[in-house]
Design a protein that fits this description.
Layout lengths: L1 H17 L5 H21 L12 E9 L4 E7 L4 H17 L7 H20 L3 H10 L1 H11 L4 H29 L7 H4 L2 H4 L4 H18 L8 H8 L2 H26 L1 H27 L4 H21 L3 H32 L10 H4 L1 H14 L6 H14 L3 H26 L15 H19 L2 H14 L3
Antiparallel strand pairs: 1-2
Helix pairs in contact: 1-2, 1-4, 2-3, 2-4, 3-4, 3-12, 3-15, 3-20, 4-5, 4-6, 4-12, 5-7, 6-7, 7-10, 7-11, 10-12, 10-13, 11-14, 12-13, 12-14, 12-15, 13-14, 13-19, 14-15, 14-18, 14-19, 15-17, 15-18, 15-20, 15-21, 17-19, 17-20, 18-20
């Protein structure tokens, strides 16, 4: 089943590649079918997923490169399954948004489906070489999706994204090779490398060096300060559906790798780095929020808010508690849903006004009530309003970190205040006050736009009111990871 989930988008991509470029409708249909199969199969796993078990489930294993002991090894647990489901779900949502792409449609949908293969593979792979292949596979499609279909500075944004991520991947590869040669017998199997008997071969100094290599590659993806500078530019220049995928899924690869690999395989290196990690988390939260407050471009504001919100994940992880880890895992899902909706909604107004400057609008709530209502709800979710998904995960991150790091956690609260300030200011300037007659002909959301945003709005409310269902998926795995 996991192979079906991972590879069905690749089958779709190959069919798209063989389809004449003039047949736009056929290309779009094939893409939706391929992504839909991955989503349907991901949902099917729920029927047999054992929430009471911390073990890997639906494991697929066969030898891939026998001479190097490299395996085709897939499996999911309570940490990875929600992210597989999130990826499949957000890919379909982004494809709905991609129906507005009019230029080079064939190439766009080919690269999009190839990107989905890489993202799904990262969360399902349990062999470090296979993980690294999928990790690198996301680079090239994203490079072209930004560089070809992006904004005025698309080439620079694409190159900066590529170089940042590739440079981090080199250090990550060195750590993977070091773990392989240090283990006995030599293995890339994550599950084997997590066993105490194998980890006893890794002395503290080795674990610190291996952790730093892994962290460097994953921190760029998160993005953690000071490796965050590629993100706002990439978001601003990327087409709206790709901004959605970038925020909803690609950033989560870094946090997932930090939990699954860096913490799971090099725990002594992780413990050594904790004081630095909590400082980075605080900087991400406060600095990201303040940078967002300084923006007048709505898309750049949401991009910097991602730096802020990923800081909450780092804060929860630094707490080294079940509550903090669960909060970080839940925050990954919630941030994907909420920020994905924000980018879609910013794209809606940009398609009509061809500007994202908050000062260019005013009083839109009178003219666009549906759009205004959805944007208000999503902004409230992002700033952590109780009753919506963002509050639950952020609260758990703070709660889990407070006992271990009370003062840094208290300082991080400044980020919540700043986040509320910039979202409320944006809403005031764009939706309240006197109506700007320049936008008198502006229409409310279309059916396609509602179809892409409404599922995210429903999940945002659902997870805010009833978070037990997603948390139950994660709890046993989180407790096992912490040895409880």
């Amino acid at each position: 089943m996991l192979s079906l989930i991972v590879w069905s988008p690749l089958v779709g991509a190959l069919i798209v590649l063989m389809t004449p470029k003039e047949k736009v409708r056929a290309i779009q249909t094939v893409s939706f079918v391929a992504a839909g199969v991955a989503l349907a199969a991901s949902l099917t796993l729920l029927l047999n997923f054992d929430r009471g078990s911390a073990a890997m489930q639906f494991v697929e294993r066969w030898m891939w490169i026998p001479s190097l002991n490299v395996q085709y090894l897939l499996g999911i647990d309570g940490l990875s399954y929600p992210l597989v489901l999130l990826t499949a779900f957000m890919s379909v949502i982004a494809l709905v948004g991609s129906l507005g792409i009019k230029e080079r449609v064939k190439e766009y949908f080919f690269w999009f489906l190839l990107l989905e293969v890489g993202m799904l593979g990262v969360f399902a792979a349990l062999d470090l070489v296979l993980f690294y292949v999928f990790w690198e596979l996301t680079l090239v499609p994203m490079y072209f999706l930004i560089g070809v279909w992006g904004g005025p500075k698309k080439e620079f944004a694409a190159i900066k994204f590529f170089l940042y991520t590739l440079s981090g991947s080199v250090f990550m590869l060195l750590s993977i090779l070091a773990l392989y040669f240090k283990s006995a017998p030599h293995t890339f199997d994550m599950l084997e490398l997590m066993k105490p008997g194998v980890q006893s071969l890794f002395d503290p100094r080795f674990q610190i060096l291996a952790f730093l290599g892994l962290y460097f590659g994953m921190a760029i993806k998160i993005p953690a300060f000071p490796f965050h500078t590629w993100l706002p530019l990439a978001h601003v220049e990327a087409p709206t559906p790709i901004s959605v995928i970038l925020a909803a899924v690609l950033l989560k690869m870094g946090v997932y790798g930090l939990l699954r690999i860096a913490y799971g395989i090099t725990p002594l290196g992780f413990a050594w780095f904790l004081p630095a990690l909590i400082v980075i988390a605080v900087i991400n939260i406060v600095y990201g929020a303040l940078c967002a407050m300084a923006q007048t471009d709505m898309k750049k504001m949401v991009a910097y808010s991602s730096v802020n919100h990923m800081g909450y994940c780092l804060l929860g992880i630094a707490g080294m508690s079940a509550t903090g880890f669960s909060g970080a895992a839940f925050q990954m899902v919630n941030h994907g849903i909420i920020t994905g909706a924000l980018f879609l909604l910013v794209g809606v107004i940009y398609d009509r006004a061809h500007t994202r400057d908050v000062s260019a609008f005013g009083g839109l709530a009178l003219k666009l009530p549906v759009y205004s209502g959805l944007m208000a709800m999503t902004c409230f979710a992002s700033l952590g309003l109780p009753g919506l998904a963002g509050f639950i995960s952020e609260f758990m991150c703070f709660l889990g970190a407070f006992s271990a790091w009370p003062w840094p956690t208290a300082i991080s609260v400044v980020g919540i205040i700043a986040t509320a300030a910039f979202f409320l200011r944006m809403m005031q300037k764009v939706f309240l006050g006197a109506f700007n007659e320049k936008w008198a002909g502006m229409e409310d959301m279309t059916a396609r736009e509602l179809i892409s945003v409404m599922p995210l709005a429903v999940v945002t409310v659902w997870f805010g009111i009833a978070p037990k269902w997603p948390l139950d998926l994660m709890n046993k795995t989180i407790e096992h990871m912490l040895g409880k």
